[in-house]
Design goal:
363 residues, 14-stranded mixed beta sheet, mainly beta, 1 helix, Immunoglobulin-like, 2 domains
Amino acid sequence: MKKLLLFCCSLFFTLQLSAQDLITLPKLGDTNETYQFRSATGGSVDLSASGLGAVWDLTDIDPDSILPGIQLNYFVDLEDAPFNDLFEDADYVLVEEIGGNKEYTYIENANDRLLILGTYNESEMQPAVFPEPVLLSLLPVAFMDEETQTAPFVIEFFDEPDTLDVTLNYVADGYGTLLLPNGVVIEDALKFSNTTSFNTLFDIDDEDLGEVTVRVVGTFGTTQIVSNEYGVPVLSRTSQGAEIFLVVVENVIEVPVQSFEFPTTVEFIWEEGTSVNNILFEGELEVWPNPVQDVLFISTGERFSNEPVDIFIFDSAGKMVLHKKADGLGSEYQLEVSGLVPGFYQLMLHNNGRYFTERLIVQ
């Protein structure tokens, strides 16, 4: 009886898996589609739910953490993309546009997978051409897909470019429903995570210590949720960090020197009908010094000299660590930040539905 019960449970689970549609992204590469995205501080966003029937609920996102600006995602033909002669194998070119700046991702559809051949940001002089294509996603994407890849990658450390091996771990462990802050519900969505990590040694010449060896450990994690309704992921959450160790005796005595943790953000598809209305501040707005140690200066000229402004600072995990209400900013408002621990932060100003945001470094 016990074996029969186990067999029935196994059969039921197998049938349940086979009933799940594969994610084929039928609109992938459609140059007639344009998708709008919004961003929010994503440290508190919980995407850990896995298995069949998972629910990812983002409806509790604090409206004050939603960043200003609309990000546009769309595809262009390879012939219309810059540096197309360097990426002749690309089948799709995805453009991410925000604030007038464009970033191009060159993607190859290699039978059963999507590979990134390189990227180009208009703020840079040259594109980044990857030594080996990097796995973006299996295609089609199926629940419980998993793969590990090792690929060379060029990193610039202490102003010296170096090539090192990075490990990419890809796993699709959730299939269910996504609930977005603007009321959009996306059924039959699949979650997959792609974690890039490296652990390598560098020999450097330090002004104080002379020739030393350091170990750099870094991770870059992306969790995405995809649906056949769109040609792009409907949600992406990114987090990244790195640690540096001074190597005294390799693998025996390694002293932590510095750690870096960048703000976690989440980007999600945005459609009309939202109750959250964020508009960028118009006119000049300056924040200095950045990096800052004790006092941060904020200037908006005379525009908000007599209007109330909310000032928020979020840490790298998306947690609000400072909130001030100012009766007006004027030409030079002083904000005390000496109580914040050194690290990366997100500064946000809010006035009557208008927002301004700036990445902030506290030393």
